[in-house]
Amino acid sequence: MVDFEHAKVDVWNWQDDYLQPMQLVNLKKDLARNFLAVTYPKYNRNIIPLTDQTFNSTALTPDGNEEYILARTDFGKRIASQWEGSTRDDIYLVSTKTGNKELILSNFSGNAILSPDAKYIVYFDQDKGSWNSYQVSSKKKTVLNDGIPASFADEENDMPTAAQGYGMAAWSPDFKGIYVNSRYDIWYFNLDGSNKSILTNGYGAASQTTFRYLPLKREEDREQATTLDYKKGGFLTSFDNKTKESGFYQFKGQHNDPKSLLVEAKTFRNISSSADQQTILYSKEDYMNSPNIYTNTIKFKDELQLSNINQQQANYNWGTAELVHWTTPEGNQAEGILYKPENFDPAKKYPIIAYFYEKLSDGLYTYQPPAPTPSRLNIPYFVSNEYLVFAPNISYKTGHPGKSAEEYINSGMRYLAQNAWVDSTKMGIQGQSWGGYQVAHLITRTNMYAAAWTGAPVVNMTSAYGGIRWQSGMSRQFQYEHTQSRIGKTLWEAPELYIENSPLFHLDKVKTPVVIMANDNDGAVPWYQGIEMFTALRRLNKPVWMLNYNGDEHNLILRQNRKDIQIREQQFFDHFLKGAPAPAWMKKGVPATEKGIDWGFEL
């Protein structure tokens, strides 16, 4: 048939495993699917299929030479991903000799790992927050952390879903034990449950320092299983959760505190070692110093700087970063980062912009290049141009994410406004995606901000709840019920919470000028959310502008668009927070007839 006689139609069926948009996103991958099999030509055996189209994934031992593999399937449970975000799995042990499949875990949520010798399955049960083992020969299951006074699931989880684990650190050399992470420390469990110990001696929890094992393997060795021999000792990375300092420690034996080797107010990355493991290579940075490469001896006594990039930064007014602590109106302890210009003068008054997402303070010693950003606030650029920038942490209560943002962001800004060098009449807010939602919410609840910039915001949780994340093809329902949006209930169970947390229903209270970025190729937040916000504020005769970067994504990809938004963002905040003239795009707009001819930048 000729093309014009072919109907072009997608058929959506309520019993489909996956929504049609998700099927279309994964079409190329699904058409190329293949399934693991094994053959023994030496014994004239036929090909033995190990999995089929009902299985999602398989896992072999590192060398792939053991009898068993691990296989996962969510067949029959996939529809629930629409509101759960993920699916529960059945975990099978599959024999490569016979193809026989033995069900080990049913309706399971978490991580399962096959030991390198295939004698055990080790798994973290996300529902119970527990580490467990399954012995292949005896079929015995053992709760490994039973009686241990530490949590192995994320203690800071504030989403209405079971917390994820902190992960595995290493195997014992004989593969009869496993090292796993708690929030601060590293623990050892015999897989048969006969022995439990703590590698870091509880020093992590006592000092609020997070320790993680640092295996000094070269790249070509990393396909082998990571092992840890406490008798030989080894190295740890450290992160002080109070000061945000990081560094390196050494351990040897058990029941000993780790020994500090190098701890600085820096961020260390790209860590590797020489072939003989006597020389360590790493990059080091903080907010004021861009990453450079260093070497050090295995005792961390002879640091040598190898590079000195970005020397041109010395020609610019840079900035500083410091931790700020305050108490919220609800009595919660809070912290955030305050960025000040390098030429900060406490006798002057500075405009201030709050930039936020969830928790950002662990990045105190992270370098931020002043390149045009995809969407977030270009912190070093604004600080260099004599703004203060504040990045507060936010903790959330299920059902009330908007009120949580109010509690932490507004109280943090009011706390800073007590300083004579903060101009409390010239405060702004900026956020992207989840941060953009919080910007939209805040301006419906307070008039303390003189200007607001929101990127890819959700303003109507009732319509966004039924939307699609077009990049993945997934429904958005899971976000509201179980993850970031933190409502914790369906739209029909708690419509009042969806309305309370939807800025759209409260936009009549807005008095803050606001710019919206909503792009027509956004694969995460439907761009009609930005349209709903713009048209509502326009109907209410509120000062609002919207930028749609044609064909660009949730976070801007094209550099010319990143440069464009940087200029407009500076002009917007300069006008409302510094009293600079408004540019033409704000005063009279850019008509479609002038698109691509006049950018509206002139003041």
UniProtKB/TrEMBL annotation:
GO biological process: proteolysis
Pfam families in the cross-refs: Peptidase_S9 (PF00326)
E.C. numbers: 3.4.14.12
Molecular function via GO: serine-type endopeptidase activity
Keywords noted in UniProt: Hydrolase
Xref: SUPFAM superfamilies: alpha/beta-Hydrolases, Tricorn protease N-terminal domain
Peptidase S9 prolyl oligopeptidase catalytic domain ranges (all copies): 411-578
InterPro entries: 6-blade_b-propeller_TolB-like (IPR011042), AB_hydrolase_fold (IPR029058), Peptidase_S9_cat (IPR001375)
Top-tier EC class: hydrolase
Keyword Transmembrane: no
Annotated signal sequence range: none
PANTHER family cross-referenced by the UniProt entry: DIPEPTIDYL PEPTIDASE FAMILY MEMBER 6 (PTHR42776:SF27), SERINE PEPTIDASE S9 FAMILY MEMBER (PTHR42776)
Name of the molecule in the record: Prolyl tripeptidyl peptidase
